[in-house]
Amino acid sequence: MATGVAACLFRVFPRPARALYRGHYRGHWQGVRAPHLGLAGRRRQHHASTTAGTKRLTVGVDGSLRQFDYVFLRDSCTCPQCVDPSTRQKLFQTSNIPSAIKASSIKPTAEGGLHIRWQNDVPGYGRAHVSEITPQFLRAYESLRHRIRSRHNDQRQVLWDRTIIEADVKWIEYEEYMADDIEFFGALLQLSRYGLVFLKGVPDSEQSIERIGNRIGPLRTTFYGSTWDVKSILNAKNVAYTPQNLGLHMDLLYFANPPTIQLLHCLRNSVTGGSSIFSDSFHAATRIRLGTPNLFSNLVTFPVTFHYQNAGEHYHYTRPTVELEEYSYRASRRIVNINWSPPFQAPFEADVESPRLRAYLSSAKAFAKFIEAPESQFELTLKPGECVIFNNRRVLHARRAFDPSSGERWLKGAYVDGDPFQSRLRVLSEKYSRAADAVDVGE
Question: Which alpha helices (H) appear in 351-401, and where do they start and end?
């Protein structure tokens, strides 16, 4: 039975009901899970076996022989001469490393790492310079898979439909989110895995959204401001500020770097209608990928243009519907972003004369069918004091039409970029990795 920190995490993040690709997307909280092997593992320690070549060093890492280029090992040195102890920033340039650099001596450490002295070292470094390569470093960098996971960039994702999210939806008290790092970590994990989390008990204040967002990272300021009001107004310059039905979409895809995290705090909601709808675009895209790969290929390759040209502003950007991770150890690269925002789509600008446009139309129809299916949508009416936080590059959101004469509907919104979100998630993953790992064992 989980106790202490692990028990808190278990309450915050129970085992999900089910998910496509669960095993395939399974990530790790702690940087690298190391079985006992050649370098100082969990169960035993002994020295690394090494073979020195003219350009590379062969090292026994966890029972396998791995090659490390001398340039890589020298460039990665973190001694006080190479990395400032205070700023933790490099004090030399990669371009300063001589191409002919190699080890003049290699000595194993008691912990299972290496001490390397260099021949043809970076100019300005004397013969006394020693690079200490820890076993943890060698293990973290032995393969692309380990390199990605060492930075917590491989968190497990749960693909969901209505049934799954209804079982796994997570509501967290505002005060716990703000004051308790364990509960906050649970919220970030839920956001990372599902792309969707809810808060309740949020104070009736226009500043609450700022406090919620700043807990993750600095608010993203756009031409809408650092925060903005979602109300029905006359002569609106955005469909969100009308009582009309607003279909599934993502925000600000006409920016070169759309915000990753979106927050909406409900301050007033007494109207008839106006419920919120969410749909997992990763789930839809994965179903297309598995069932009709040719349609999926069109979503990955065909460029779609988005724009906003109104109220003295003119934004414009072209991107494919599906973006895949750039670096991957998987046979099939993971989906990292979806770009779908029909209200803000501009006329196509590329391949409009070729058959690819018709091919994309078929793929877009298939994607729309999946995300708009009732079984794919999670619908609820936000109440005053509730806040939804979601991944704007994954989870599509929509709103039913409402009658503005029946009452008042007022949401306060904000954005946070993906970099501060990932930074905060990494810091807390490192802090609570063992407890999170204990909770993850049974999944």
Answer: 356-372
For residues 16 and 157, what is the distance between their CA atoms, to the nearest angstrom? 11
User: For residues 109 and 106, what is the distance between their CA atoms, to the nearest angstrom?
Assistant: 10
Which residues pair with residue 228 across a beta bridge? 413
> CA separation (Å) from 39 to 52, 65, 109, 138, 146?
17, 11, 10, 8, 15
130-133 and 114-119 beta bridge pairing: antiparallel
Residue owning tokens 């196509």: 348
Q: What are phi and psi of 273, to 5 degrees?
A: 95, -160
Confidence band for 36, pLDDT divided at 50, 70 and 90: very low
CA distance 39 to 53: 20
Annotate 253-306 with DSSP letters as a single string. TTSSS--SEEEEEEEEE-SEE--EEEEEHHHHHHHHHHH-HHHHHHHHHSEEEE
Residues 6+ apart with CB under 8 A from 338: 250, 281, 282, 285, 321, 322, 323, 393, 394, 396
User: For residue 258, what are its two tokens?
Assistant: 């759309």
Please report the sign of the dihedral spanned by the C-alpha atoms of residue 286, residue 287, residue 292, residue 298. negative
Q: For residue 383, which of 299, 276, 236, 302 has the smallest C-alpha distance?
A: 276
- Closest by CA position to 246, among listed 416, 402, 405: 402
State the pLDDT at residue 435.
Answer: 56
Cα distances (Å, whole numbers) of residue 262 to 163, 202, 416, 418 = 23, 16, 7, 10
Q: Which helix (H) or strand (E) holds 391?
A: strand 387-391
pLDDT confidence bin for 234, thresholds 50/70/90 = low
pTM: 0.83
Other CB atoms within 10 A of residue 380 CB:
14
Question: Helix, strand or coil for residue 51?
Answer: strand
Q: Are 44 and 35 in contact (CB under 8 A)?
A: no
Q: Is the pLDDT of residue 85 over 90?
A: yes
Q: How far is CA 214 from CA 24, 186, 207, 208, 220, in A?
A: 33, 17, 11, 10, 10
Pairing of strands 171-173, 196-200: parallel
